Task: inverse folding
């Protein structure tokens, strides 16, 4: 696992779908408790996204599998530049960790990079993805279920 590169208050890394739902105000997809946690962290400047999520959103829009409330360039400018959401780095150490994840990680390369990014940042990965949540319950990454209990699950020591 790459060394933790951030110390201090808890940072949340948003899975791509959670980021979309949060920015698009699709509140019915997020639990009330999770939404409260996201808003509190947003006010504190403690929300982050991976550059891979930017790529995923662009790809979904290009393939016409995702329609946003505004064009994708405006959406990104608003969601990143004008919001308090930070963009995490995608480093060689994160890429290597994603390739070498222990246990039974998700097979989706994007999910693996998000997991490795959360681990490198010492962040909690906020998701509704069942495979990522199971991987977190197995103690490999700190996760929070955006559709259920907003209390993060910690990796085993």
Result:
């Amino acid at each position: 696992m790459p060394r933790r590169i951030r110390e201090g208050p808890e940072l949340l890394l948003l899975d791509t779908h959670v980021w979309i739902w949060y920015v698009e105000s699709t509140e019915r997809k997020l639990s009330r408790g999770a939404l409260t946690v996201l808003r509190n962290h947003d006010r504190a400047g403690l929300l982050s996204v991976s550059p891979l999520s930017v790529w995923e959103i662009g790809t979904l829009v290009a393939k016409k599998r995702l329609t946003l409330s505004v064009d994708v360039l405006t959406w990104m400018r608003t969601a990143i530049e004008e919001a308090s959401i930070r963009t995490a780095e995608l480093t060689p150490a994160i890429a290597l960790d994603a390739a070498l994840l222990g246990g039974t990680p998700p097979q989706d390369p994007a999910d693996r990079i998000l997991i490795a990014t959360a681990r490198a940042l010492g962040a909690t990965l906020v998701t509704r993805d069942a495979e990522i949540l199971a991987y977190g319950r197995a103690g490999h990454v700190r996760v929070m279920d955006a559709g259920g209990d907003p209390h993060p699950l910690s990796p085993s020591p």
Observations:
- Residues 36 and 98 are 30 Å apart (CA to CA).
- The first strand starts at residue 12 and ends at 14.
